[in-house]
Design a protein that fits this description.
This protein is of the alpha/beta class and 516 residues long. It folds into 3 domains: 185 residues, Class I glutamine amidotransferase (GATase) domain (Rossmann fold); 195 residues, HUPs (Rossmann fold), CATH 3.40.50; 97 residues, GMP Synthetase, Chain A, domain 3. 33% of the residues lie in helices and 22% in strands. It has a 9-stranded mixed β-sheet with strand order 2-1-3-4-11-10-9-6-7, sandwiched between helices. Strands 14-13-12-15-16 form a 5-stranded parallel β-sheet, with helices on both faces. Strands 17, 18, 19, 20 and 23 form a 5-stranded mixed β-sheet that branches. Helix 5 crosses helix 11 and helix 8 runs antiparallel to helix 9. The structure holds xanthosine-5'-monophosphate (XMP). The site of xanthosine-5'-monophosphate has 13 residues, from loops. Xanthosine-5'-monophosphate binds next to loops. Homodimer. Keywords: ATP-binding, Glutamine amidotransferase, GMP biosynthesis, Ligase, Nucleotide-binding, Purine biosynthesis. It comes from Falsarthrobacter nasiphocae.
Length: 516
């Protein structure tokens, strides 16, 4: 693999993704690994990520010079670049001058080496305080900026490279080219493909499960659907999927699972129709955290009941269920510090989270994958685009998009408004521009309106379209006014009880994406 050494900034995952976009397999490792531990992973190349502001800062992670003496090609990025400079005997100066954001960068002596094929003057994304003032011996300066006398360098003979900017962010227009140039110079094989992932996972799953029985839960989301479809492809009828329909999904989503997913995969599906159960458990509850707890608790109970039925059925056939499929993704594994094999149950936000006292062994076919790769594998498996392309949707569903008590009537109303908003967004071709667009019913708020000749006293619907890379931060999407107008007209005309549509123009922070 290409190892991305994580120095603690949020950029390591982005780097790992960009390497995979260049069709090379990458893994993230913590900076606490020793050089021997890193070498034990047999890296084809190493990339040092960005990190804390200064190599001189208290507790800043050290990078031993021995890492650069193993014959493994290394690319240092931002902090990693300065750490390499520092370890190899260059000078890193604390100028107190910061460069932040888009910065003009000029190639020295022509664009070559890792800058090959890139304009000599380019805009790069910077975020640094210290600067490299002189390159270490044997290194050549490749680029400079106003604030950084050495903004990129190379030691071709030893295949050591570094850039001050962040090639992994999209604001660095030629960033991907830098990464690909490095992979080429490092001689890294570019053989990571969706087809390859699929074949490898299918044979791994077969090996793990053998001829045992396995169950999985479907939430309607991308991850559980792709994980289930992979396991189905591997072991066919040994798999039974459970779908707990809690009645908090959006319009058409339960059908997507029960009809389209089943048609595409041929999976054995056990449906638990639990709408009433969730509604009565939520009656009278308005506090968001309370709602989450109740939905989470009922979900686990409903899942366990379904599970007991399936176990009993298997027992009648002389079989036991040994395995449970989880749609854990690579970012979850990295964030929980999990290395190989550590069972990591997604407890994030609790719903879809499963009981702690698991009696099953876990099958986690997506453990090595990023979300975009999961979507690609899903498409390769023939899953419907509505499932594969689905935007993130919270486990507690519409339950936390009704501000106020959740009732059947309010759910119906919100489902209609949401379906209109989604249909119009899709028709405008803007699905890829927005990360997600919660549509929220302010059930506890009423406002006066006028419709026809009459006065109305209805509820507002909030549109909350946001753009984001990872949901940790977000900005409100600048949707075209015509589109907003169309959504507003249609919702107020077609959804009884709604007489106002408002747009949320708050970034995150300070707002969260959801209203509850
Ligand atoms: P916030 O509202 O915290 O949301 O900015 C960040 C992301 O998490 C999703 N979200 C949830 N997902 N259970 C989930 O599975 C939850 O309780 C939950 N709350 C928020 C939200 O949709 C966004 O993508």
């Amino acid at each position: 693999p290409v190892l991305v050494v994580d120095y603690g900034a949020q950029y390591a995952q982005l780097i790992a993704r960009r390497v995979r976009e260049a069709d090379a397999y990458s893994e993230i490792v913590p900076h606490t690994l020793s050089t021997e531990e890193i070498l034990a992973k047999d890296p084809a190349a190493i990339i040092l990520s960005g990190g804390p502001s200064s190599v001189y800062a208290d507790g800043a992670p050290r990078v031993g010079a021995d890492l650069f003496e193993q014959g493994v090609p290394v690319l240092g990025i931002c902090y990693g670049f300065q750490a390499m400079a520092n370890a190899m005997g260059g000078t890193v100066a604390q100028t107190g001058l910061r460069e932040y954001g888009a910065t003009e960068t000029r190639a020295e002596g022509g664009a070559r080496s890792i800058l090959n094929g890139i304009p000599e003057v380019q805009s790069t994304w910077m975020s640094h305080g210290d600067s490299v003032h002189s390159a270490p011996e044997g290194f050549e300066t490749l680029a400079t900026t106003a604030g950084a006398p050495v903004a990129a360098f190379a030691n071709e003979e030893r295949r050591l490279y570094g850039v001050q900017w962040h090639p992994e962010v999209k604001h660095s227009a030629h960033g991907q080219r830098v990464i690909e140039n490095f992979l080429d110079l490092a001689g890294v094989r570019r053989d990571w493909s969706t087809r390859g992932i699929l074949d490898e996972q299918v044979s791994r799953i077969r090996e793990q499960i053998g001829d045992s029985r396995v169950i999985c839960g479907l939430s309607g989301g991308v991850d559980s659907a792709v994980a289930a479809a992979l396991v189905q492809r591997a072991v066919g009828d040994q798999l039974t999927c459970v779908f707990v329909d809690h009645g908090l999904l959006r319009e058409g989503e339960a059908e997507q699972v029960e009809r389209d997913f089943v048609a595409a995969t041929g999976v054995n599906l056990y449906v638990a129709n639990e709408q009433e159960r969730f509604l009565s458990a939520l009656a009278g509850v308005t506090d968001p955290e309370q709602k989450r707890k109740i939905i989470g608790r009922e979900f686990i109970r409903a899942f366990e009941e379904a599970e007991r039925q399936i176990i009993a059925q298997a027992a009648a056939e002389g079989e036991t269920i040994r395995f449970l499929v989880q749609g854990t993704l690579y970012p979850d594994v990295v964030e929980s510090g999990g290395g190989e094999g550590a069972a990591n149950i997604k407890s994030h936000h609790n719903v879809g989270g499963l009981p702690e006292d698991l009696k099953f062994e876990l099958v986690e076919p997506l453990r090595a994958l990023f979300k975009d790769e999961v979507r690609a594998v899903g498409a390769e498996l023939g899953l419907p685009p509505e499932i594969v392309g689905r935007q993130p949707f919270p486990g507690p569903g519409l339950g936390i998009r009704i501000v106020g008590e959740v009732t059947g009537e309010r759910l119906d109303l919100l489902r209609k408004a949401d379906a209109i908003a989604r249909a119009e967004l899709t028709a405008a071709g803007l699905d890829d521009e927005v990360w997600q667009m919660p549509v929220v019913l302010l059930a506890d708020v009423r406002s006066v309106g006028v419709q026809g000749d009459g006065r109305t006293y209805g509820h507002p619907i909030v549109l909350r379209p946001v753009s984001s890379e990872d949901a940790m931060t977000a900005d409100w999407s600048r949707l075209p006014f015509e589109l907003l107008a169309r959504i507003s007209n249609r919702i107020t005309n077609e959804v009884d009880g709604v007489n106002r549509v408002v747009l949320d123009v708050t970034s995150k922070p300070p707002g969260t994406i959801e209203w509850e």
